[in-house]
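Case 206 in the screening queue. Each case pairs one protein sequence with one candidate compound; here the compound is coenzyme A. For every case the pipeline is the same: read the inputs, emit a complex structure as tokens, and attach any notable structural observations.

Predict complex for case 206.
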Amino acid sequence: MAQRENLNVSLCPLHTRQDLIESCAELIKITWPCSKPERLHRMAAEETSGLPCCLVLIEHREDAPDVVVGHVRLVTVTSPETPRSAYLEAICIHPSKRGLGLGYKMMKLAERYAYDNLGCKQMFLLCLATTLGFYERLSYQLYPVLKLETEGINLLSHSPKFATWYGNKPLKGWEFVYSDGPCASKEVMKRRAFGQLTLRKYLTDS
Ligand SMILES: CC(C)(COP(=O)(O)OP(=O)(O)OC[C@H]1O[C@@H](n2cnc3c(N)ncnc32)[C@H](O)[C@@H]1OP(=O)(O)O)[C@@H](O)C(=O)NCCC(=O)NCCS
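Case 206 output:
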């Protein structure tokens, strides 16, 4: 198994490395077989240097081409009472590279990117109880779910149960993705029918 110290990785927006779209799509499909990573081509073509954006963790290898070993997508949070924030989704590390500290490293790099390049002061995400420990190590804390409003979540459509939730606005031109499945209502969210917890982290310059 690869050692933590031997892995040479960096994080960058997918739209700056369009040669890695197929590698990224493969990772997302392996992680969520119901997902639609073929949409990455259009997403990367439309994205510039702001939100939303797909960030990829790239492994740089000596005698082989770069490969995507991690992915996280940052989406705009529109809740009026929150300072500029990003919602994180489709967070994954390649199955062969898990347990090596790469997930932790990718999240820290994504937080730095969001703070330095996007001016984000907070990060939000939903997680299952089974991954809560991972985010707690990164200092994420529970947040009341009903206050979260977003724009353009879940374009990769990996949730088999709900295509969107009541607080989400479609991204212009991408309305069709939400015909894939039902919208989780306020009541459904209250009952935590996603089976998920909302977490938040304040970002700082340290
Ligand atoms: C969750 C995921 C991103 C973690 O990535 P990873 O590279 O394996 O995690 P790391 O090796 O960086 O782990 C960092 C720390 O979190 C801990 N950790 C990792 N996964 C955990 C989990 N599911 N529950 C609790 N703790 C976890 C590790 O033990 C490690 O702790 P340590 O520093 O004390 O040793 C990865 O397992 C994954 O891609 N899973 C499938 C997709 C998924 O579930 N995404 C999250 C959706 S909310």
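Case 206 observations:
- The longest strand covers residues 67-77.
- DSSP finds five helices and eleven strands in the chain.
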